[in-house]
Amino acid sequence: xxxxxxxxxxxxxxLPALALPAINRTTLALFAGASGDHNAVHIDLDxxxxxxxxxxxxxxxxxxxxxxxxxxxxxxxxxLRQFGVRFVGITQLGHQITCTGKxxxxxxxEGEKRIRLEIQTxxxxxxxxxxxxxxxxx
Length: 138
Description:
This protein has a domain at 11-23 and 56-135: Roll (Thiol Ester Dehydrase, Chain A). The protein is built from 4 helices and 5 strands. The chain has helices at residues 25-35, 40-43, 45-50, 60-72, and strands at 18-19, 80-87, 98-109, 112-122, 128-137. A 5-stranded antiparallel β-sheet has the order 1-3-4-5-2, covered by helices on one side. A hairpin with a 5-residue loop joins strand 4 and strand 5. The longest helix has 13 residues, at 60-72.
């Protein structure tokens, strides 16, 4: 992690992308256990097929956790002031997720110099799965 300062970061700068391995059943099982989210749509093939879906799919919060990793590989966690997302697509098994971020604003609030980032996850086809924003203090 490099030392960033408010003066060295500019609107339009991008965060180093975080590319992840393809989502598989093991990842979903491990995340279900770690998070306590055992919703059947993420782990039970029979259940999702009865519901009309072709297969289980990733937890939205798994992808949000990946975005958290994107941010904390760029700045220390203690610098994070805000982090929110909107789920815009389903992350299917086999999707290779890439997390990206871009600086969209520099401002001061509560006596701190801060930046606002637009962040997202997208699959290997370039389809956004999560859109969000974050604010960090520099």
